[in-house]
Here is the input.
Amino acid sequence: QVQLVESGGGLVQPGGSLRLSCAASGSIFSFYFMGWYRQAPGKQRELVASIDGGLNVNYADPVNGRFTISRDNAKNMMYLEMNSLKPEDTAVYYCNGKGIGYDRWGQGTQVTVSS
Here is the structure.
């Protein structure tokens, strides 16, 4: 089964940028849905951005205009470009891929926005 591994998290100052990557161990072509979720301490996991097989994208209101999701089926990668980061963006970010009858998650990468 395809495994997902996130990278690119870290500590950044408010207003800064980070690029998260999600590497798949196999083809992501069959993922009809891919998304980035995040979970802050004491809060529920929430969908941040999603992209489907037709490259249609959706963003949660708090990140719309600041984050950009993309996927590269040829490289089996998904990305999240995060700009104008705010302290409230601090969370563990998870990569998710959904196929017919299956659902894959990465282990998460920590993003901390602090001065």
